[in-house]
Write a structure and sequence with these properties.
Chain lengths: 335, 286
């Protein structure tokens, strides 16, 4: 018999290393004499799209086009240290470092623009690669200012360093503010359990994530969807068997991950509760995207068959044992 | 990795000469979806192999034809080819279903039905269907040709009675009686790239009076070598299908499994599941 059920999983997850562990990132930006920039960051894009959003942040802050940003990332020969792509931290930590480098460069551009135009004071804003001084109605292109910086030997570099290292908690009470920021998420999952074979099909996932601010909504959704699929594999398939301390699951023919055919319909809903310390209010989404999925799946299985699965993955044998009242209980493995 | 000499013959005659010369020091490769993995893993089944003979380029062994009530499939026909064949869909749809559930699109485009048989995995997806069809395998060597039933070719898991100088050229079976209905079901750990935990092929013809005129039940992945569940078939043959007879037939299938495989760590899972999927399929004919 096939039985359907719905389950919910919720989580909160801290951004960065926390607990006074060193957590910082640096970035530099060089502007060429045509107004395009080269951004150097140690942040390693392992597929999450950090190159894209860091280039967006630099372009946004400087008032230039995204296409005018050339990014060099994670090349230890030339890029400054930005720490690892772990702890869902790079948008927050490297994002802030890149933004600071862009602000540093922008201040130098504005200062030199004032020198060129003979304006010592007054309001200023940048729009579409032009520096505007509204009170005098004067303006000058970023490219012209950059060319002048190069011609006159003035600094054409911006530098940023962001420190996300937090104080440790109280060693006696374990109380304190261990992390700089937290993400929140809830996922709702619908499953169909085949009570005769133990097969679980995930039919639909609705994933709601507070990311602070989605710098790039499309790549943010991509991360949520990828995380859901990883969480589905964790909940239903992935298992490492050991014998006498030796790993017996040594290849992807036995360590199973979801295939495209196993991926359910996923609806991502982005919630933007801006984090004042984050770049443009952004927090992170990398790990939060996969955390609620497996709990939501086992809750949905419980809703469908009325039995709790306490050992992951909820594979054929464990689910069948749970679904059959006379069967063997409690997640026995199978050779 | 294992070192070997690689041959790329362009005709069946060339293959037969090479096989005759090198014997069990040679291994044939077609789609390579099993052999390449065995080579990478330094599989002991290839320990004596010094020559790999690629038969992928041998012409006219990829056909699917029908003549005089028999269907003949060249051993190099791919799973993708069989799954999409309109002849196979019309005459023996469960073979199309089984071929369509092998591995992944890439594997189905490379892998061949001949390879699926000679690899002799107990979990092969197309084999239960061919067992249900009582298929005959055409083997050829330099000294002549012979036929062997698929029910007799498997000696034990990953071991067949095909001699080292022989090549499987064709799979042939009689079309099912007019009006037969077929089903194939596969229980795997995921929807694609899954090795069957249990699979099952059935074909049943029920006459105008509701009497079972022909029945074939062939489970896979539950026995060291595949065979039809004859005791279960006997219960159903010649009478009207009922819930009670189906229940009894399902028990016979699992009894035959335990008789051939013994009690294993997987029995607690496979016994109820093979009974349940047999019941599920047979109930479709009620």
């Amino acid at each position: 018999m096939k039985k359907r059920g719905v389950g919910i999983g919720s989580m909160y997850y801290a951004i960065g290393y926390g607990f006074n562990r060193p957590d910082h990132a640096a970035a530099t930006i060089e502007i060429a004499d045509d107004g395009t920039i080269t951004l150097l960051t140690g942040c390693c894009d392992i597929g999450q799209g950090s190159d894209t959003i860091l280039a967006q942040i630099a372009a946004e802050e400087l008032g230039i086009d995204y296409e005018d940003v050339h990014i060099i990332s994670a090349d230890t020969a030339v890029t400054p240290d930005s720490g690892a792509s772990t702890a869902s931290r790079q948008t927050f930590v490297s994002g802030n470092a890149v933004r600071m480098a862009a602000i540093d460069l922008k201040e130098k551009l504005i200062l030199h623009a004032r020198e060129i135009l003979g304006l010592n004071q007054g309001e200023v804003f940048i729009k579409d690669k032009i520096i505007h001084f509204p009170e005098s109605s004067k303006n000058i292109s970023i490219a012209a200012v950059a060319k002048s910086l190069h011609d006159k030997g003035k600094p054409f570099l911006g530098y940023g360093w962001y420190n996300n290292t937090t104080p440790d908690v109280d060693p006696e009470t374990n109380q304190g503010d261990a992390y700089a920021s937290y993400c929140f998420a809830t996922q709702v999952v619908e499953v169909e359990v085949d009570t005769d074979t133990g097969q679980v099909e995930v039919l639909k996932v609705i994933a709601v994530h507070d990311v602070g601010k989605a710098i790039n909504p499309v790549t943010c959704e991509g991360q949520i969807e990828g995380g859901v699929v990883q969480g589905l594999g964790y909940g239903l398939f992935e298992e490492v068997e050991t014998k006498d301390g030796v790993v017996r699951t040594r290849n992807f023919d036995e360590f199973l991950m979801p295939t495209a055919a196993d991926v359910p319909d996923i609806t991502s809903i982005i919630v933007e509760d801006e984090e004042p310390k984050g770049p443009y209010g952004a927090k992170g989404v990398g790990e939060p995207s996969l955390i609620p999925t497996a709990p939501a799946i086992v809750n949905a299985i419980y809703d469908a068959i009325g039995v709790r699965i306490f050992q992951l993955p909820a594979n054929l044998e464990r689910v069948l044992a749970a679904a059959q009242p006379m069967g063997k209980k409690g997640g026995e493995g199978d050779a | 990795m294992h070192k070997f000499k690689f041959y790329n013959p362009k005709s069946l005659e060339e293959v037969l000469v090479l096989l005759d010369h090198h014997g069990d020091r040679a291994k044939l490769i077609a789609g390579g979806t099993d052999i390449l993995i065995q080579l990478r893993n330094n599989d002991e089944s290839l320990a004596n192999v010094q020559f790999i003979i690629n038969i992928d380029a041998v012409p006219s062994m990829r056909y699917i034809t029908e003549q005089d009530g028999y269907i003949s499939i060249g051993s190099l026909a791919t799973h993708a080819q069989i799954a999409s064949s309109s002849l196979i869909k019309e005459k023996v749809n469960f073979l199309s279903e089984a071929a369509g559930l092998v591995g992944s699109p890439q594997i189905r485009h490379r892998g061949t039905i001949g390879g699926n048989i000679v690899n002799a995995s107990p979990a092969a997806d197309t084999v239960p269907v061919l067992v249900a069809l009582d298929a005959v395998l055409m083997l050829q060597s330099l000294s002549g040709s012979r036929e062997v039933s698929i029910n007799e070719v498997f000696l034990k898991p990953y071991k067949t009675s095909i001699k080292s100088n022989e090549i499987l050229t064709e799979i042939r079976f009689k079309c099912l009686p007019e009006g037969s209905r077929t089903h194939f079901i596969k229980v795997g750990r995921r929807k694609a790239l899954a090795i069957a935990r249990v699979n099952l092929a059935t074909a049943i013809k029920i006459d105008d009076q509701g009497i079972v005129e022909d029945v074939r039940i062939a489970p896979g992945s539950i026995m060291p070598t595949p065979c039809r569940a004859r005791e279960a078939e006997k219960i159903l043959l010649g009478s009207v299908l009922t819930k009670e007879s189906i229940l009894l037939a399902c028990q016979k299938v699992s009894e035959e499994m335990i008789a051939k495989s013994g009690m294993r760590a997987s029995t607690f899972y496979k016994k109820p599941v093979v009974e349940a999927i047999t019941s599920r399929i047979l109930s479709k004919y009620l």
